[in-house]
């Protein structure tokens, strides 16, 4: 998943690299047709192989994205978009309003509230699932009896579709007679309104998301651990390095490329995690567990009248935030000497 | 990665709680197994509880005991009295198509970016990474309109195309990593034997990449099987729903038929678990092939 490709691939199929040549194909010189033909002749294999992806993504993401950005600069809502009622076709009457939506959103405490919780949600989910996944992966990464059994059990949550798991957790969290509360009262303690108390609801959604997320971390990190040469550990052991020192100076550096990738990916996924929150609490109680994405969804599909333009503006802001985080993260990695 | 309990050249008995490679006394061993056992129970318990609950009579859904009156009533109810079978059919069509097309497209893309240097490659790689970031919220309304214009609402094909855009970018990354691990000498040998790049890819490289393909198939399958937001926005009318959308009708603000829900959830989880079981062996190598070499 690293961005840099290996150097060896250049010579793979005999296609000369466009990089490293003195000229680029997009230069507008009189020779363009010939050059274009030459580029086509050399690269048409590669281009035809990636064409389906480029076309599908271009149409299904490019167009809606452009349109979403455009909508965010208008005052479109359910009442003024183009629609057909019976046989009557009513044309769109929404108008361009410039940055009004953004101004309204950023000037409102609601957005900052939601952003604060979204950041807290993302950071705690990613940190917890990474830490737990790493601890379990380290334990599983050696020979002992029952290892395969443990591994299978630990990645089981991945085999269950997320929405099924979420419903199961709702069953367990049920306030009146869910298993957790039955156990609590059985132990002589009071019930907890897991999903109806703002603080507990936050803890509950994070718990469920960590439970859902650990298997991916575990698998990825286990793969990373297996690629660290055993000789390194043997040498360190000979030198009398303590287990902690070996973990600190061999395991962690050896896992860097894997962990930087999974942390980035799971940050993006968690930030946009829709099903867990939407199905567990619907963003409630009140809006205590509403993250940016579920709120934007609510604006355009739940409330009435549906507010398309504001929802689109929220979406654009989410995208900008993520792009910013990614760029900063990669810059930080590069500064530490990572290759991608 | 061998067991080192037999030789202790340096007297480094690890302080108990730090469980790392190296010498492991009985106490550390016990700790290791206890921790893993606890974690396994936490991982397995919710699905297990779901299974147990599905065999209880509807009225006992919240009973904390194990099954008292074993019944298959919930399953019968779900299959006979609800639209479950049409949801299942919808889901199977959508997910089957998505997986087939997705695996193929991800493989060709992954192969192209792994083996060729071509103009537009870097932007393409960036695009694949960026699509991971697009929030459902910004796409869903315009996409809804687009599908409505094309007459694809309530049509499986609309969802298939949507899921492809979700699954393929990540899968292409994975496949690229996998192809990077296959020696280029194989391609060269194919070309010497007179195969063109397509032939090399199809006849030589693809068969070698089977574990990677398995993981890609699994990921694509799970993406479609478990997706909620697009499915509930684009499919309306009871009989057009997919499983994810349909399941929500059992438990909402007005009704809560936990018996039906649990039975349906079990039926949904079983195929996923089977597919998972088939590819589990390859998951570690397939998923991280790319990540481990940068």
UniProtKB/TrEMBL annotation, chain A:
Keywords: Cell membrane, Membrane, Transmembrane, Transmembrane helix, Transport. Residues 115-329 form the ABC transmembrane type-1 domain. It is a multi-pass membrane protein. PROSITE patterns: ABC_TM1. One of its GO terms (biological process) is transmembrane transport. Residues 1-10 have a biased composition (Polar residues). InterPro entries: MetI-like, MetI-like_sf, UgpAE/MalFG_permease. CDD domains: TM_PBP2. SUPFAM superfamilies: MetI-like (SSF161098). It is found in: Cell membrane. GO terms for cellular component: plasma membrane. Residues 1-34 are annotated as: Disordered. Its main location: membrane. It holds the Pfam family BPD_transp_1. The chain crosses the membrane at residues 44-65, 119-140, 152-172, 199-222, 258-280, 311-329. Belongs to the binding-protein-dependent transport system permease family. This is ABC transporter membrane protein.
TrEMBL record, chain B:
Belongs to the binding-protein-dependent transport system permease family. MalFG subfamily. This is ABC transporter membrane protein. It is found in: Cell membrane. The keyword Kinase does not apply. The chain crosses the membrane at residues 27-49, 92-113, 125-144, 156-175, 213-233, 258-280. It holds the Pfam family BPD_transp_1. It is a multi-pass membrane protein. Its main location: membrane. Gene3D superfamilies: MetI-like (1.10.3720.10). GO terms for biological process: maltodextrin transmembrane transport. Keywords: Cell membrane, Membrane, Sugar transport, Transmembrane, Transmembrane helix, Transport. Residues 1-23 are annotated as: Disordered. It comes from Streptomyces glaucescens. GO terms for molecular function: ABC-type maltose transporter activity. One of its GO terms (cellular component) is plasma membrane. CDD domains: TM_PBP2. Residues 88-279 form the ABC transmembrane type-1 domain.
């Amino acid at each position: 998943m690293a961005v840099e490709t290996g150097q060896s691939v250049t010579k793979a199929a005999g296609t000369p690299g466009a990089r490293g040549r003195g000229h680029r194909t997009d230069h507008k010189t009189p020779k363009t047709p010939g050059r274009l033909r030459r580029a086509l002749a050399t690269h048409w294999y590669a281009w035809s192989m990636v064409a389906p992806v480029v076309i599908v993504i271009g149409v299904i993401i490019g167009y809606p994205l452009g349109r979403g950005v455009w909508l965010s600069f208008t005052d479109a809502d359910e009442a003024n978009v183009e629609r057909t009622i019976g046989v009557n076709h009513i044309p769109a009457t929404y108008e361009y309003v410039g940055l009004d939506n953004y101004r309204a959103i950023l000037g409102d405490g609601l957005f900052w509230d939601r952003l604060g919780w979204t950041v807290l949600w993302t950071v705690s989910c990613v940190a917890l699932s990474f830490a737990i996944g790493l601890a379990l992966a380290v334990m599983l990464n050696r020979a002992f009896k029952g290892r395969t059994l443990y591994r299978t059990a630990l990645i089981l949550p991945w085999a269950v579709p997320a929405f099924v798991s979420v419903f199961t957790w709702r069953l367990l969290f049920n306030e009146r007679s869910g298993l957790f509360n039955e156990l609590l009262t059985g132990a002589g303690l009071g019930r907890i309104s897991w999903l109806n108390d703002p603080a507990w609801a936050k803890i509950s959604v994070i718990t469920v998301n960590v439970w859902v997320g650990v298997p991916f971390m575990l698998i990825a990190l286990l793969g990373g651990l297996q690629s660290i040469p055993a000789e390194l550990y043997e040498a360190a052991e000979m030198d009398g390095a303590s287990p902690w020192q070996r973990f600190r100076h061999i395991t962690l550096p050896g896992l860097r490329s894997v962990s930087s990738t999974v942390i980035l990916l799971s940050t993006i996924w968690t930030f946009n995690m829709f099903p867990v929150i939407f199905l567990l609490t619907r963003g409630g109680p009140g809006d205590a567990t509403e993250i940016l994405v579920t709120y934007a969804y609510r604006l355009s599909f739940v409330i009435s009248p549906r507010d398309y333009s504001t929802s689109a503006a929220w979406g654009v802001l989410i995208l900008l935030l993520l792009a910013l985080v990614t760029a900063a993260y990669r810059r930080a990695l590069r500064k530490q000497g990572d290759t991608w | 990665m061998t067991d080192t309990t037999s030789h202790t050249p340096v007297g480094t008995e690890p302080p108990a709680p730090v469980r790392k490679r190296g010498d492991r006394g009985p106490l550390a061993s016990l700790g290791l197994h206890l921790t893993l056992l606890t974690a396994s129970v936490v991982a397995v318990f919710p699905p297990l509880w779901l299974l147990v609950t599905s065999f209880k009579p509807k009225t006992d859904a919240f009973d904390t005991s194990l099954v008292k009156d074993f019944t298959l009533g919930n399953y019968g109810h779900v299959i006979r009295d609800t639209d479950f079978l049409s949801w299942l059919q919808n889901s199977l069509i959508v997910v089957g198509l998505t997986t087939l097309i997705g695996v193929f497209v991800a493989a060709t893309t992954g192969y192209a970016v792994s083996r060729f240097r071509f103009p537009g490659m870097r932007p393409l790689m960036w695009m694949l990474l960026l699509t991971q970031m697009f929030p459902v919220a910004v796409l869903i309304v315009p996409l809804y309109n687009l599908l409505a214009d094309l007459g694809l609402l309530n049509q499986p094909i609309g969802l298939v195309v949507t899921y492809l855009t979700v699954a393929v970018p990540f899968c292409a990354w994975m496949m690229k990593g996998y192809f990077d691990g296959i020696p280029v000498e194989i391609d060269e040998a194919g070309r010497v034997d007179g195969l063109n790049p397509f032939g090399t890819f199809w006849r030589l490289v693809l068969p070698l990449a089977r574990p990677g393909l398995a993981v890609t198939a699994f990921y694509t399958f799970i993406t479609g099987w478990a997706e909620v937001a697009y499915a509930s926005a684009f499919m309306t009318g009871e009989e057009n729903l997919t499983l994810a959308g349909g399941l929500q009708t059992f438990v909402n603000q007005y009704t809560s038929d936990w018996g039906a829900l649990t039975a349906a959830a079990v039926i949904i989880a079983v195929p996923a678990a089977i597919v998972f079981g088939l590819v589990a062996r390859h998951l570690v190598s397939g998923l991280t092939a790319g990540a481990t070499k940068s």
